[in-house]
Design brief:
It is a single chain. With 65 residues, the chain is mainly α. The chain is 65% helix and 0% strand. The chain contains four helices and no strands. Helix 1 packs across helix 4. The radius of gyration is 10 Å and the shape is globular. The C terminus is likely disordered.
Amino acid sequence: MEKTELPLGLGMALAQNEAAMKQFEALPAEEKKQFAERAHAVRSKQEMRRLVDGLLQRGGGGAEG
């Protein structure tokens, strides 16, 4: 996935959470795409933070929602 394809809020949230960023980078391309698509539905900073934190809680699978 190209960095330019990431929603801005997702990129910012990942930049603030190094462990989650590493987990995201380790995802297969299709999972990155699906995660970015979920991020498009996020409506608040707190919600984005929970989505990104889900990368660590679910071992890289991301938060459901």
